[in-house]
Every structure is written in structure tokens, then in C-alpha cells.
Write a structure and sequence with these properties.
Layout (H helix, E strand, L loop, with lengths): L1 H15 L2 H7 L7 H5 L15 H24 L5 E3 H7 L7 H9 L5 E5 L6 E5 L1 H16 L1 H13 L5 E3 H6 L1 H4 L5 H6 L6 E6 L4 E6 L10 H13 L3 H4 L15 H11 L18 H20 L5 E3 H6 L10 H6 L5 E4 L9 E4 L3 E2 L2 E2 L4 H14 L2 H39 L3 H15 L5 H19 L1
Antiparallel strand pairs: 1-3, 2-3, 4-6, 5-6, 7-9, 8-9, 10-11
Length: about 475
């Protein structure tokens, strides 16, 4: 105790000799020199973002994929699903490209876009490759197969909101992340009237999706299942994991002694579930505010768990801020919990922020992938493939076609020689007709009736020459 008092006195004596320090604190009635020396055991409000290159590299590929999707939608909107290059350069400004950047961008991804010359108009056209079309069909099938799960996700999303309703426009903006089809208003909301209903709010002139009935069986958070799994695998103390979250700090994150104590206290702090209504509680106390802050962490955690890829942009989370009682400064709030979430600024020159759920990823890949996620990753695989691989594929296709043409030519000549031998050894036109029928049946539907008459006349002339 004496040593502590001596340190305080030395600190005050040293600063009393500094006139700037005296001028700054002489009019401050709340100044306490002990407070400046003590270390807080609460989580700091402002923290620097520590980069995790695994997520940033993921977003670098995602940035290219988003641009590719813009061109894909533009090409698929055309009647023949192909667009002239001059028209594409004219419409490039709609998707954020200049006139000359569009053509250069298409040439970078030959596995997705194919540029060819129109046989009649003699101008360059662009269309999707066969691999890209198969990827789109695979994604559509995966999206159609998981409609029932999309209904469950939308029900849980509405259960977390105040009043069990959300704006239709806000859900439409986040439909891709939630795995909802583009026409979800008709294929999901109106198709299941036992779960949802559309409401026109006269006071705000907006449409809302409202949940018909709250289902307690769906009110189980993903973090609760994760806690149960950790408790079974590791055998941790039930009191330690009752209100805790899975923490995985990024590489290079410095954890001080006071921060470790603050995290230990925060992990054991009870909170209200995101599916529990808090309108009946008194939220004016400090303890209630701490619980609401942890409830906001649980709400964002559950929102990310409802997405297909366990990630969503920060701007789309902000649309649900008022309906789910989230804090105003979302980015600063998420940076306080870098062991649970990761905020990436890659994409759109740092203006776009993507929030990842750290526990759902391992080495840049989803731990529990679903069919829709795998279908979308196939497009990313086509994007990162080397252009040299596309050139090799074209050469292999050309080689196979030429080889197939040679084989078909040899088969055709063999059939013609057999037919000529039958004409030479036969006793009439009937045998020649049988040989001609065999030739036509083997070669297939590519030979029409006019060609059959020409072959028959040629075979008859060959028979006359043999008799002469």
C-alpha cells in the first residue's frame, strides 16, 4: 500500500511541474489521477482491425466473381443469350465499366465467356461457355431443391425482428445471401400463407413481410447447438460454456492480461436470446445494457448462421438494425469481437464491408458446405482457371472433332465398298435395294431421300459398267 501511494505522489509531483498539464486539468472537477493509472477490465470500445489473409484472399476471388455475374446477367437478358461486342461496350457503363474495359475484361475469363464471329453479320459476339451454362443450371437446381430450408430461414429471420415483421425491400436486397429465389415474394411468401403474409403499411407506404405465428421450436440459436457440441466433445464445465461463444482470434492479434480478464467475464455474462422479446424488461440499468450488447452479438451471429455462405455485407446487416435492436456504429461494434467475426474491406475499393462468421470457416473454405454454396463456388473455380487451360481445351476439342470426322469417313467408305460388292455379286435390283437400306440405316438420319436416289442411280450405273 505504501508503494502504491508513493507512485501516486511521484506521478502528481512530476506533472505539477508541467504547466500544460496543470492548465488542462485545473478546470476539470472530475479529474482523478488514480483513474489515469488504472487499467480497465472491460473490452475496449475501439480496436484496430487485424487482417486475416485467408478471408481477404477469399474476397479477392469474390470481387472478380461479382463482376463476372454482372456480365452474365447482361448476356442472359438478350433474346438469343448472346450479345454483339459493340452493343456490350455501349451498355458497359450500366455495370460500372468503361467502353474499352468491357472487352478486355471478357478476355481474362475464357472459361466463362466465349467470343465468336457471327456467320452472317460478320461481327464479334459474346456468349457464355458450356461450363458456365452448366454452372448456372446447377445453381438453379440447388436453389429450387432447398426452398423448404429457405422458408425456415425466413421464418427464423422474422422471429428475431420486433413485431415479427420486416420490410419487403430489405429482405429482397439480402435474398441472395439468405438463399431465397429472385421471385421469393411469390414462390415463398405467397405460396405459404400459413407462415407469411404481406402487409401494406399506410403510415410508411411500404410493404412488410409478417410472420403469422411464432414457433418456439424454431427459436433455438446456432450457437446453442455449437455449445452443446463443444460440451460433448471437450467435456468443459457447464457453467463455462452456458453463455460463451466460440472465440478464434486472427493471427497477430495481441491479447493483454486485462483483455483476457475482460473476455473471461464477458463469456460468462448472461444475455437474452435473439428470439426472446425484450420489450417487457427495464433496460436502463448498466447490467441490462451489457446484456443487450451481448444479445446484439448473438443476433448478428444468428443472422450470419442463417445465410448460405455464412457471410453477408455490413450494409445489408444495417438494413435490419432498427428491427433487431442492433447498435448504430456496427463496424466499431464488430471490431470489438474479432474472435467471433471478421470484417473484410476487400471489394469496391474498400467501400464494401463483408462480415464473416469465423467459426464457420477453416482455411478459406466452409466447414459444412451445402449444395448452393458448392454450386456458387464452381463459378469461382472457372474464374481462377488459367487462360492457357482454355486454349488447351480448345485444341483437345478440335483434335477430337477431326478424329471423329476421320472415323466417320472411314466407316462411310467401308459401307460403300460393301454395297458395291453386293451389287457385283447379286442377281437383281432387289439386292441393291437391300444393301442401300443397310447403308441408310447405319449412317443415320443425316442422309435424306434425295441423297438416297442419287446413290441408287450411281449404284445402277456401276452395275451396268460391270456387265459391259
Amino acid at each position: 500500500m505504501r508503494i502504491f501511494i508513493l507512485r501516486i505522489s511521484n506521478f502528481i509531483n512530476q506533472n505539477l511541474k508541467n504547466p500544460q498539464w496543470i492548465h488542462h486539468h485545473q478546470h476539470n472537477p472530475n479529474f482523478n489521477p488514480i483513474r489515469g493509472m488504472s487499467q480497465s477490465t472491460s473490452i475496449p470500445k475501439k480496436q484496430l482491425r487485424i487482417r486475416d489473409h485467408g478471408y481477404d484472399n477469399y474476397m479477392e476471388i469474390e470481387k472478380k466473381t461479382r463482376k463476372v455475374l454482372k456480365f452474365q446477367n447482361l448476356i442472359l437478358s438478350e433474346p438469343n443469350q448472346s450479345i454483339p461486342i459493340p452493343r456490350l461496350e455501349t451498355l458497359a457503363h450500366r455495370i460500372g465499366f468503361t467502353r474499352h474495359e468491357a472487352s478486355a475484361f471478357l478476355l481474362k475469363f475464357p472459361h466463362v465467356f466465349e467470343i465468336f464471329e457471327h456467320p452472317v453479320q460478320r461481327i464479334l459476339f459474346c456468349r457464355l461457355t458450356r461450363k458456365a451454362i452448366l454452372q448456372i443450371e446447377h445453381e438453379r437446381n440447388a436453389l429450387a431443391d432447398q426452398v423448404s430450408r429457405a422458408v425456415t430461414r425466413l421464418r427464423k429471420l422474422l422471429m428475431m425482428s420486433n413485431g415479427l415483421r420486416l420490410r419487403l425491400e430489405h429482405v429482397r436486397i439480402a435474398r441472395s445471401a439468405l438463399g431465397l429465389p429472385d421471385d421469393f415474394e411469390y414462390s415463398v411468401v405467397l405460396r405459404y400463407p400459413e407462415f407469411f403474409r404481406l402487409i401494406d403499411a399506410k403510415e410508411t407506404r411500404n410493404k412488410y413481410i409478417e410472420l403469422v405465428e411464432f414457433d418456439p421450436e424454431l427459436g433455438i440459436c446456432a450457437i446453442e447447438n455449437a455449445r452443446e457440441r463443444v460440451y460433448r466433445e471437450r467435456g468443459s464445465d457447464a457453467e463455462d460454456v452456458r453463455f460463451s461463444f466460440l472465440i478464434d482470434f486472427p493471427p497477430g492479434f495481441k491479447i493483454s492480461k486485462y483483455f483476457r480478464i475482460a473476455m473471461w467475464k464477458w463469456q460468462r455474462l448472461p444475455y437474452w436470446s435473439p428470439y426472446e422479446a425484450v420489450s417487457g424488461y427495464d433496460l436502463r440499468s448498466i447490467e441490462a445494457q451489457k446484456r443487450m450488447e451481448k444479445r446484439a452479438v448473438a443476433t448478428i451471429h444468428e443472422l450470419l448462421s442463417l445465410t448460405v455462405e455464412k457471410k453477408i455485407t455490413l450494409e445489408r446487416i444495417a438494413h435490419f438494425r432498427m428491427a433487431m435492436d442492433l447498435p448504430k456504429k456496427l463496424k466499431e461494434f464488430l471490431l470489438q469481437h474479432q474472435g467471433i467475426f471478421y470484417v473484410s474491406t476487400r471489394g469496391n475499393h474498400g467501400k464494401l464491408h463483408t462480415v464473416f462468421l469465423r467459426e464457420a470457416y477453416r482455411k478459406g473454405e466452409l466447414v459444412e458446405p451445402n449444395d448452393l454454396y458448392l454450386a456458387r463456388r464452381k463459378l469461382a473455380e472457372l474464374v481462377i482457371l488459367s487462360p492457357r487451360k482454355a486454349k488447351v481445351d480448345r485444341e483437345l476439342v478440335g483434335y477430337r472433332r477431326s478424329k471423329l470426322d476421320d472415323e466417320m469417313g472411314q466407316v462411310t467408305r467401308a459401307y460403300v465398298e460393301d454395297a458395291c460388292e453386293d451389287f457385283k455379286g447379286g442377281n437383281g435390283v432387289g439386292q441393291s435395294e437391300d444393301a442401300e437400306d443397310d447403308l441408310s440405316s447405319d449412317i443415320g438420319s443425316e442422309v435424306d431421300s434425295g441423297d438416297d436416289n442419287d446413290d441408287f442411280d450411281g449404284s445402277v450405273s456401276m452395275q451396268r459398267k460391270s456387265h459391259e
